[in-house]
Specification:
Elements (H helix, E strand, L loop, with lengths): L6 H15 L11 H8 L3 H13 L3 E4 L3 E4 L4 E3 L7 H4 E2 L7 E13 L1 H7 L6 E11 L2 E11 L8 H5 L4 H9 L5 E9 L3 H7 L7 E9 L5 E10 L3 E3 L20 E3 L18
Parallel strand pairs: 3-11
Antiparallel strand pairs: 1-2, 3-4, 5-6, 5-12, 6-7, 7-10, 8-9, 9-10
Length: 276
């Protein structure tokens, strides 16, 4: 005799039935937790447990303060390819629509790991540029680029606010083209800021990609970080480099220090919404 379903399993079955009978597609919103509880005649605890299980199975995705949605197939990213984000995201015949918001532009001093990677200056002055990428209207990628001021004296903040490509600007203005990169990928817990900006529910993990981009001549010019909800992306990695400047033992130290902590005259901090 078949074992009776637990209450949260009944809710999981209810949700799968709703998706099928209503023809819900990826991105469509599901009923609220309260509505699901009423429909299934169960408690909110059972509903939350069911959604936890479905989220782990990549059947639904929850956004804090917004709702629960039917999950789609993962977006395929090829971080090993050179070029901007649009060139490294593929889905079907073309990339999904990506909107970019500039959050801040800060000038500071590279932390120990980034300073070693950029070398030879033990405390180089750097730009730290933070942007939020939205895919189909959803906050999906929190991206940080750290660029040495010695190679990138100025940043066109107005163009970045308007959605312009940072890497196209670097190529045109300074001849810095990402020919290849070394990268380190891990699944980890988000910081409080990452959780808020990406709208993640409690206990949702993120995929964190940290790396450094090189020119064809082997000059490192961008220490970057991309944080996205775990499960929403599939990563295709290929290629090799003989540089190996990244080490797993110190990759967690990806800091930029306030300019005031560096040697005198090394610069000042400035947010994107402040005048130069």
């Amino acid at each position: 005799m078949a074992k009776p379903l637990l209450r949260y399993e009944q809710v999981m079955q209810l949700i799968e039935t709703l998706i099928a009978e209503r023809g819900l597609a990826p991105g469509d919103r599901l009923p609220t937790n309260q509505e699901l509880a009423q429909m299934g005649g169960v408690s909110l605890i059972s509903v939350r447990r069911a959604l936890d299980e479905l989220e782990r199975a990549d059947r639904v995705v929850r956004h804090q303060g917004v709702g629960t949605f039917v999950a789609g197939p993962p977006i395929v990213s090829e971080p090993g390819r050179a070029g901007g984000l649009l060139a490294t995201l593929t889905e079907g015949e073309g990339p999904p629509a990506v909107e970019t918001s500039l959050l801040s532009v800060t000038r500071g001093i590279a932390g120990p790991t980034i300073a070693r990677v950029l070398g030879p200056d033990p405390a180089p002055s750097v730009w730290e540029i933070t942007r939020l990428r939205r895919i189909r209207g959803r906050a999906m990628i929190l991206e940080r680029a750290v660029l040495p001021v010695a190679l990138v004296p100025t940043i066109d903040e107005a163009a970045l606010r308007a959605g312009g490509s940072l890497y196209r600007f670097l190529a045109r203005r300074y001849g810095l083209v990402d020919e290849y990169a070394e990268q380190y990928l891990e699944v980890s817990s988000p910081t409080a800021v990452e959780q808020r900006l990406l709208g993640l529910p409690a206990r949702r993990s993120v995929t964190r990609v940290r790396g450094v981009s090189f020119t064809a001549a082997g000059t490192p010019f961008d220490c970057f970080e991309q944080v996205s909800p775990a499960g929403d992306f599939a990563f295709y990695l290929a290629g090799q480099t003989n540089r190996h400047v990244l080490q797993a033992s110190d990759i967690r130290d990806w800091r930029v220090l306030p300019a005031q902590q560096g040697p005198p005259g090394m610069g000042r901090r400035r947010r994107a919404d402040q005048n130069p």
